[in-house]
Write a structure and sequence with these properties.
heterotrimer, A mainly alpha (363), B alpha/beta (371), C mainly alpha (307), B: 371 residues, Rossmann fold, 2 domains, six-stranded parallel sheet, 17 strands, C: 307 residues, two-stranded antiparallel sheet, globular
Chain lengths: 363, 371, 307
């Protein structure tokens, strides 16, 4: 990082603002470019981009109902994105968050079924802790294999996700199946007192509030603690970190376990707030959307919040668009593809756009 | 186990409709709607040659009705997705009657949403509505096991190896009933026939379905049917291996006309137009509706060219028996395939018996297990 | 008449299943291998594969020729490869992330344009009956081998020979092992990597066409069960050796056939766990053969996932 030489008496405000603006303006420009490319795609298909985006507005953000629709879909995405963003700070690409979500959900469902009658004050924390523990072990396993065995974490987490889903199906349709769950094999239905309800005044469950809190905590961990600082060094250069005596192994394990723990919480909220029991619907693809969100947010936990809301809004409006424009449900995937590509390509612009680089102002 | 006394008449739906006509004649208050929006939600693509296509064909019939607007959404997951899709149809498109058609939509999604929208009618396929559930929720289904029984009769005649095969998604009651019915139909022809079942574990997983079909043919099965969401892959793979096929959900004749024997199909067009008309006329649909071949809830594909005359004759005879009502595919003495007695001599479970909807066993002669 | 073969039938089923199921794995892993030998990783082959399955099926249906479908799928796949290659040539762009983006994009486009091809029936690719010598129908069926499988075997040998002895192979290896060394030799790494990624994409597209045009031989949105994603694991597994890709693909295909085969002889409980066998096996072998201290043998030096 270079810093502009500031002469005495000259205001430092403008260069400072310019530098701060760069990571905000570039992604927004990239987002617009992605929308523009997608609009061209729609035009080529004989559909109106204006109608599309006005329906996104109507279905995702245009009314109290639409906002709550969007926010209800945001909670699992926040956790899933954290599961990618935290290891990414150490330079690890974990793409198997889906597995931790699914196993966290099954753990919460099984513990909840076992704790029926003990009341929410005991049961809910135990369910949350269990879900976090199992999710954390799952992603921690990928991190540990990476550090201690040299197994690539991208591949191992993907394989572990397939294994987790098979394990979940086996448990839910075998040993943990509630015989009264007839046509949708599930664990025992949670009683009303073990169901997490809505945030007062909203039709959005508490998972959103917890998810936002976790994003803030993760940001503080990364930006405000020595652990976070050490992780950033290790992420930049493992060898340098080891030379400086940083406990790289423990850092990797710690961050991966925490990341998996967050993903496990996503599963727990799916079970207690939405599904009411653990079943095959836990495999909803949140883990994969989380990868997208984390990369779009450049692994910054605070930025994850608005990005997750944006993507949730696209998904919330997807059904309306299917009904009103006769576009297939996959249209939202195409849009996400355009936006994702555009934002990733914009990485090349950092430090190159003159208005954001005070050093180049005088040239 | 309750036997042979149906808790609900399978004609309850039709009788409800006529009762409403009577109510209207008596001048009881009935709110007639001049225009109505009806929503249909599918769990997969609506042209899958299977479960979703069968419902979409019903929706297409509703579309043709005057004064009705139909809105549809496909590939809606059994998660918060379906809750919000229903709410979006209600709040943004003004839907007043919704048909969410997948098993997993019922509990908790529909049951939890319904109290919030008491003026909206939720009609769910395959759910088991019981007293105490929201009154604006209805569940309907058809006795398609009877269709698989008729499949089994044709299969029993056409099988040279005396072994028939079933590709199944998951061991849930409706699937188990279909497997058992298929075998019992075949055993009505020849009691030595066995039926091998392979579970794929998923409702839609093309490669696994093809592998399961191959494994069945390798194991000697020469007539194959299935219960997965889209039977296209199973039908095509089995036909290519030279096996005969019996269809399910929708008519798959076009996929292999010379191997296709017959098929158990849903017949939602009449059911859906009837339900929508009831609401249009200001009436209420029963909360619990079931129907079979006689009620037009299910139908059989036309018999294929390969079907022998003997098979044809027994098929028509059994069909007539089923149409007459009170037919039982499961008759005692009958054991499950672990040897445990299910029914004693003289006992029977008729098609309308509600106990069939919580089936958790495979009858003797089925090779496979429920867990 | 079918013959009762008892437990032998499991072995025959696994062999047959390995041949039937492995072809897409073989093509997609050979494609990934070419890309990785040039120093890039393409995680987006899942999207390429699915788009190849759709476009192959669509073109085969519209033209009435399965081979035209295969050609279309390979062209479409090459285009995805070019997009990946070009975007990753922009400085500071993460190839893993671009791969994930293209996976999403490829699947999205395939599902978007594929709706009208779910119903029609396209012509199948031909197969060769290698089991003619046997009277046992199970063996005849198991040895009914698709032409693409044989092409895949040949391709693996050709790629192996190319990498070892030809000038093209040498260039690819140098570029993959060290950008600096390549530049010193007067090579331009960027166009070479783009070409390698395009070739990889074309192979993945063909793998997809096999799925939709031969086995299971149908276009549905659930046609792929992660064959494209697994390619990356299989290449590591095969230690970047094309011939080893054959064994990796066969092993993975055979393990996948285990679940249905066991059920068909009456081993019925815990089938979900049998279905997970390929993944457990791959993970186990990866763990067993990796080492934290030395770089993986055979790994191209410029590859981001092994650095």
């Amino acid at each position: 990082m270079q810093h502009a030489v500031i002469r005495p008496g000259e205001s430092a405000l403008l260069p400072c603002l310019a530098r701060r603006a760069e990571p905000v303006v570039i992604p927004l420009l990239a987002l617009l470019a992605g929308f523009a490319a997608f609009s061209l795609f729609l035009v080529s298909q004989g559909k109106s981009p204006v109608q599309y985006f006005s329906l996104v507005w109507l279905g995702g953000f245009g009314s109290a109902f639409s906002w709550q629709n969007t926010l209800s879909r945001t909670a699992p995405l926040l956790f899933a994105a954290l599961c990618v963003a935290l290891p990414a700070r150490l330079g690890l690409v974990v793409i198997g968050g889906e597995g931790a979500i699914v196993l966290g959900g099954v753990t919460a469902g099984a513990l909840g079924a076992a704790l029926i009658g003990s009341g929410p004050v005991i049961a809910l924390p135990v369910m949350a802790a269990g879900a976090m523990l199992v999710g954390g072990l799952w992603i921690g396993l990928a991190g540990g294999l990476r550090h201690y065995r040299g197994v690539n974490e991208t591949i191992s987490s993907l394989l572990l996700a397939y294994i987790a889903i098979a394990l979940m199906n086996h448990l839910v349709e075998g040993p943990l199946r509630d015989p009264t769950s007839l046509n949708k094999p599930s664990t025992a239905a949670l009683p009303p007192d073990l169901r997490v309800g809505n945030i007062p005044g909203l039709d959005v469950h508490w998972g959103l509030a917890v998810g936002v809190t976790c994003c803030v905590l993760a940001w503080m961990l990364i930006d405000r603690t020595t652990w976070g600082f050490a992780a950033r060094i290790a992420g930049g250069n493992v060898r340098a970190a080891q030379v400086q005596g940083l406990p790289v192994g423990r850092l990797i394990l710690g961050f991966c376990v925490l990341a998996g723990g967050f993903a496990g919480l996503a599963g727990m909220f799916e079970v207690t707030a939405v599904l009411g029991s653990a079943n095959g619907s836990l495999v909803a693809g949140y883990g994969y959307t989380g990868i997208l969100i984390a990369f779009l947010a450049r692994h910054n936990p605070l930025v994850i919040i608005p990005v997750a809301i944006l993507l949730a809004g696209f998904q919330a409006s997807s059904g309306l668009i299917q009904r009103r424009m006769d576009l297939p449900d996959a249209t939202v995937l195409v849009l996400q593809g355009f936006v994702f590509l555009s934002i990733l390509m914009s990485e090349a612009l950092y430090g190159r756009l003159k208005p954001f680089v005070p050093e180049k102002w005088r040239a | 186990m309750t036997r042979s006394t149906p808790a609900f008449s399978r004609r309850s739906f039709l009788s409800a409709t006529t009762a409403l006509g009577a109510a209207a004649a008596l001048g009881l208050p009935a709110r007639a709607q001049s225009n109505m929006t009806v929503g249909f939600i599918y769990v997969g693509p609506r042209d899958d040659f299977g479960y979703n296509q069968a419902h979409a064909e019903g929706a297409a019939a509703v579309k043709a009705m005057a004064g009705v607007t139909v809105i549809e959404e496909e590939n809606v997951a059994e998660t918060i997705d379906v809750q919000k899709s229903m709410e979006s149809m209600i709040n943004l498109d003004g839907a007043s009657l919704i048909f969410p058609t997948s098993f997993g939509y019922f509990n908790p999604h529909i049951l939890e949403l319904a109290p919030k929208y008491p003026d909206i009618r939720f009609q769910h396929a395959a759910g088991l509505w019981t007293d105490g559930m929201p009154s604006n929720v209805g569940s309907y289904f058809g006795y398609i096991g009877m269709g698989q029984y008729l499949n089994g009769i044709v299969a029993g005649h056409m099988s040279a190896t005396k072994k028939i095969g079933f590709v199944a998604a998951k061991p849930i009651p409706q699937v188990l009933l279909n497997i058992n019915s298929f075998l019992l139909g075949a055993r009505a022809v020849d009691p030595s026939i066995t039926c091998q079942v392979i579970f794929t574990g998923e409702w839609s997983l093309a490669v696994k379905e093809a592998e399961a079909t191959n494994a069945l043919v390798d194991a000697g099965c020469d007539v194959i049917t299935c219960h997965v969401d889209g039977p296209k892959v199973v039908m095509e793979t089995a036909a290519r291996r030279g096996a005969f096929i019996c269809g399910y959900h929708a008519d798959q004749t076009a996929l292999a006309p010379d191997r296709y024997l017959t098929g158990a199909e849903w017949n939602w067009a009449g059911v859906y137009t009837g339900m929508v008309q009831t609401v249009l006329d200001g009436g209420m649909i029963d909360n619990f509706v079931r129907g079979g071949l006689a009620d037009g809830f299910i139908k059989m594909s036309p018999l294929g060219s390969a079907v022998s005359d003997a098979a044809r004759a027994q098929f028509e005879a059994a069909k007539a028996e089923i149409l007459a009502g009170g037919f039982a595919a499961l008759k005692g003495p009958l054991n499950d395939n672990t040897g445990k007695p299910l029914l004693g001599a003289g006992e029977a479970l008729v098609e309308t018996d509600i106990a069939l909807e919580s089936m958790d066993y495979l009858v003797e002669g089925v090779i496979g297990s429920t867990a | 008449m079918e013959t009762d073969l008892g437990l032998w039938s499991i072995l025959i089923a696994i062999v047959g299943g390995a041949i039937r199921v492995s072809t897409p794995f073989l093509f997609v892993s050979l494609g990934e291998l070419l890309t990785e030998r040039s120093g890039r990783i393409n995680l987006g082959l899942e999207g390429t594969l699915v788009f190849g399955a759709m476009s192959g099926y669509g073109v085969a249906y519209l033209t009435g020729s399965a081979w035209a479908g295969v050609a279309a799928a390979s062209v479409a796949g090459a285009m995805f490869g070019v997009v990946h290659g070009v975007i990753c040539s922009i400085p500071r762009v993460n190839d893993i992330a671009i791969g994930i983006a293209l996976m999403l994009f490829g699947m999205g486009l395939a599902f978007f344009f594929g709706k009208r091809f779910i119903q029609p029936v396209a012509p199948y690719l031909p197969s060769i009956p290698f089991g003619w010598w046997s009277d046992i129908p199970q063996i005849r069926a198991a040895l009914d081998v698709n032409v693409l499988f044989l092409i895949g075997l040949g391709l693996a040998l050709v790629i192996s020979w190319m990498l070892r002895t030809t000038r093209v192979g040498l260039i690819l290896r140098v570029v993959g092992d060290s950008t600096d060394a390549a530049r010193a030799m007067g090579l331009r790494p960027v166009p070479i990597r783009i070409a390698a990624t395009a070739a990889g994409g074309a192979l993945a597209g063909i793998g997809g066409a096999y799925l939709s045009l031969y086995y299971p031989g149908s276009w549905t949105e659930g046609i792929s069960s992660g064959q494209g994603l697994m390619a990356v694991a299989l290449v590591i597994f095969a230690r970047w050796n094309p011939v080893a890709c054959i064994w990796a693909a066969l092993l993975f295909g055979g393990a996948g056939a285990l679940g249905p085969a066991l059920q068909s002889v009456g081993i019925t409980s815990g089938y979900y766990l049998f279905y997970a066998a390929p993944y457990v096996l791959t993970l186990g072998l990866l763990i067993a053969t990796s080492s934290p201290t030395r770089a993986m043998s055979g790994a191209p030096g410029e590859l981001s996932i092994t650095k």
